[in-house]
Amino acid sequence: MKNVIAALTEGFAEVEPGVTVSYDPTGSGAGITGATDKTLDIGLSSRALKDDEKNDVDGTVVALDGIAIVVNKDSKVADLTVEQLKKMFTGEITNWKDVGGDDGEIVLVGREAGSGTRDGFESITDTKDKCKLSQELTSTGAVIEAVKSNPSAIGYASLSAVEGQEGIKAVTVGGVECTEENVQNGSYEIQRPFIMVTNGATELSPAAQAFMEFATSDDADELIREAGAVPVA
Fold this sequence. Notes:
The protein is an alpha/beta fold. The protein has helices at 2-15, 28-36, 82-89, 116-125, 140-148, 159-162, 180-184, 206-215, 221-226; strands spanning 43-45, 58-72, 79-80, 107-111, 135-137, 153-158, 168-170, 172-173, 191-198, 230-231. The strands form 2 sheets. Strands 1, 2, 4, 5, 6, 7, 9 and 10 form an 8-stranded mixed β-sheet that branches.
């Protein structure tokens, strides 16, 4: 979400140079609360609104976070389930032979604490604060390189960062390929929405309304892709 908002803010400044957009990355809960109590024009959430929250605020999906699961190009494994991923990353499954691969220890590669990609992966697979990573790296590029160089490795990365890469392959999850189309239609499971949260009881200021309209326009699609996310169909 941080990268998406930064890209949208930069793009918006080109069309509305007189408007300043300030962003405080304090978490989804704070964004929803801020919209609820009207201390924010627009709150931000990197998860779907809960049913009780929908009583107070409205959510507009501006982008989707599609996270590809990557293995070395020589791996025999082509498909994994969310449940298998959960067991692998929490140390319950430690050998590739238990998920259809060659006999050998699974090397888990992930991002550092505070990474949005890590937060997304752990939230979706229900592994938050439970991952037993062999390597904890500070960039998506480093994760991809680590998986390229180790036939026993598995990691995760934003869909946009994986496309066109050699030396790795993205496995299907539950038989579904990680593509922009499958993220957009909801069939690929390792994904979450990025949401702008507003209070329907309060009319947005002209500046805030203009930013909302820009963020949900076709003009924002390429900015969203460049930020590592998937535009809404």
